[in-house]
Amino acid sequence: MFATQKYGSSRSEDRLLRFVLLVAIVLTLAPVLRLFAEGITVDDRLNLSLISEVLSQPSTQRALQHSLLTAGLGTLVSLVIGSAFAFLVALTDLRGKAALVFCLMIPMMIPPQITALSWTQIMGPSSVLLKTLGLAPPLGAPQPLYSPAGIILLLGIQHTSIIFLTLRAGLRAIPQETVEAARISGARGLRLWWQIIVPLCLPSLAAGIAITFVTALGNFGIPAMLGIPAGYATLPTLIYQKLAGMGTTVLAEVAVLAILIGAVAICGIGVQRFFQTRQRVHLVGATSRPLAIPLKGARLPVEITLWCVVFALLVLPMAGLLATSLVPAYGVPLGFDTMTFASWHEVLFRQPVTARAFVNSFSLSISAAIVLMAICLPLAWLMDRSPSRLGRVFDSLVDLPYALPGVVLAIAMILLLINLPFTEATLYGTIWIIFLAYLARFLTVMFRPVQASIRQLDPAMNEAAQSVGATLFQRLRSIILPLTAPSAAAGAILVFLTAFNELTVSALLWSSGTETLGVMIFNLDDSGEIVMASALAATIVLVVMLLMIAIQLLARQLPKGVIPWQT
Predict the structure, then answer these.
(1) CATH of the domain at 372
(2) What is the mean pLDDT of the chain?
(3) What are the DSSP calls for 390-414, one per residue?
(4) How far apart are CA 477 and CA 483, in angstroms?
(5) Read out DSSP for 80-101?
(6) Residue 203: inside a domain
(7) 244 and 392 part of one domain
(8) 91 and 192 together in one domain
(9) For residues 131 and 125, what is the distance between their CA atoms, to the nearest angstrom?
(10) Which of 8, 231, 245, 527 is the residue whose CA sits 20 to 30 A from 377?
């Protein structure tokens, strides 16, 4: 009887696995395959002439060079800032580490278009903050951020958190006993850091560099807001300009551009994996206590320096954004006689599109987090219990929609859903295409933490429940869900906060009535409504920070692992 019961349970697990795996594959890989097919076929026949034609265009070659330059040097800026913070926070006896980590997470949660907008408010001749302080350059002086150097700087600042978090995770895994043994053997100072610490954290550092490069390569908000006014196009902005100017008639051409930028992104991930497989240094066992190298007399100067950097990267741009939102017109100095909340009132209470954008962004982000949790929890558990060839293929490709730039995924979703199979219906121009794009893009953000958590579970618990007659859904509800809930909650928080301000995907998918907050800020700035754009951006930053602070305040009441920046 027990064998029959176990066999029946196994069959039900296999059926559920096939169903959930099929749903996940359709969500994540079908758009990518459709994109690839569009770029290499003409009239359903293999034809590479379009690829050759698009790649030979001077605009394509310039945009590719610009993308590689800005992403590469932006990654270098992130590496310098993020690694310095990671080494000091993870390895030394600095005070206020939790506050530093929280502050460094904020730029990653603020959308890139707000980052670009806020920094333009503290530089240039029209800067309200500089005019108020009497430091503004003369009228007619160029805006320094409308340049490749400006794009590189802000890409580096935007993605510093990625380097910091990945490297810090690797550094925290280094046991203090390892460093103490090296000290006993005579290693000191830079020799200890270079010969012991750096080799042990190289896999984490390589992963952070690769993810940062790929993310910077696909960043749309910063190159669009700084590069388009300067006539400096990267591949994501070139795709956007072609679609905005000629619509869906150039889908085949932009599909080739999307394949090109996707190929570069995949090469970046491939390089990272190559260096990880070449890494021969391994740690065995868990760290007993984290490193805390004493800084002694240098601790206070180092703390002051780090907080000054945080102030320059976070507080100054937000102050410039706030100052701009409180004047009647862009370029007017802020004073008691000029201060007004008219732009806040206009954009928040008189513009109906704002309320619609808030509702759209909130509903899309919370729905994506809930649906992805419902998909990834059973999927990760069943893939771990019933390994298969299809599951292994999916596991190796699930990161692809997130690794690809958002604009590439948007093109893929348009190609897949502009004409639904066997019908004349279309999802293009509806909010559903944005929702499905969010599911595809952020599935791996939810799946990977849940998968790592499930791999740590003892299979004996599930077998014991199965032996006493617990059904598949009873085991999922009573065993798997409670034990993996912290990791799933951390993934849901990341999905929600990231999707809430998303622009790169929705910039090509929105239509009247489906605007998101990221799209609205970009459109306001693009149309010259900089004061209203600043007011809306400041509101969004305030909402994001309040959400993060609320989550942080609940840290003691929540299980360990729920808060992503503390994991």
Answers:
(1) 1.10.3720.10
(2) 81
(3) HHHHHHHHTTHHHHS-HHHHHHHHH
(4) 10
(5) HHHHHHHHHHHHB--S-HHHHH
(6) yes
(7) no
(8) yes
(9) 8
(10) 8
Please answer whether residues 68 and 269 qualify as being in contact, where contact means their C-beta atoms are separated by less than 8 angstroms: no
Q: In the 8-state DSSP scheme, what is residue 229?
A: T
Give the Cα-Cα-Cα angle 152, 147, 328 (nearest 5 degrees). Answer: 105
Same domain, 244 and 378: no
CA dihedral 282, 284, 285, 289 (to 10 degrees): -60
Q: Which of 271, 258, 169 is nearest to 211 (CA)?
A: 271
Do 369 and 455 reside in the same domain of the chain? yes
- What distance in Å separates the CA atoms of residue 215 and residue 233, rounded to the nearest whole number? 17
Assess if residue 322 is contained within a domain.
Answer: no
Strands 41-42 and 45-46, bridge-based pairing: antiparallel
Half-sphere exposure of 373 (CA within 13 A, CB side): 21
Q: Is 515 exposed, middle or buried (0-12, 13-18, 19+ CB in 10 A)?
A: buried
Please check whether residues 262 and 397 belong to one and the same domain: no
Between CA 302 and CA 295 the distance in angstroms is: 9
Q: Give me the half-sphere count of Cα atoms (radius 13 Å) on the Cβ side of residue 295.
A: 15
The tens digit of pLDDT for each residue in 527-548 reads 888 889 888 888 888 888 888 8
Q: Residue with structure tokens 């499930």?
A: 454
Tell me which residue has tokens 């072609």.
Answer: 242
CA gap 212, 220 in Å, rounded: 14
User: Once rounded to an integer, what is the mean pLDDT over residues 550-564?
Assistant: 74
Separation of alpha carbons 523 and 20, rounded Å? 38
Residue 327 in any domain: the answer is no
Residue 351 and residue 458 in one domain? yes
Residue 277 lies in a domain: yes
Residue closest to 34 by CA, chosen among 406, 401, 415: 415
Q: How far apart are alpha carbons 531 and 330 in whole angstroms?
A: 6
- In a 3-state reduction of DSSP, which class is residue 513? coil
Residue 159 contacts by C-beta under 8 Å, 6 or more apart in sequence?
74, 75, 78, 108, 212, 215, 216, 219
Number of domains in the chain: 2
What pLDDT score was predicted for residue 283?
43
Q: CA-to-CA distance for 561 and 146, rounded, in angstroms?
A: 41
- Residue whose token pair is 């910091």: 164
Q: Check whether residue 347 and residue 308 sit in a common domain.
A: no
List pLDDT tens digits, range 237-281. Answer: 888 888 777 665 677 888 888 888 878 877 777 776 666 555 544
| Nearest alpha-carbon partner for 154 in 89, 234, 258 | 234
Q: Which residues of 152-178 are buried (b: 16+ CB within 10 A; e: fewer)?
A: bbbbbbbbbbbbbbbbbbbbbebbeee
User: Across-strand partners of 42?
Assistant: 45
Q: From 272, 295, 314, give the residue that closes a domain.
A: 314
Report yes or no on whether pTM surpasses 0.85.
Answer: no
* Phi–psi pair at 291, nearest 5 degrees: -70, 145
Dist. CA 418–CA 427, nearest whole Å: 6
Last residue of a domain, one of 273, 295, 314: 314
**Which residues make beta-bridge pairs with 92?**
293
| 429-465 per-position pLDDT tens digit | 889 999 999 999 998 888 888 887 787 666 666 667 6
Instruction: Say whether both 519 and 370 belong to one domain.
Output: yes
How far apart (Å, rounded) are the C-alpha atoms in residues 425 and 448?
34
Residue 360 near residue 515 (C-beta atoms within 8 A): yes
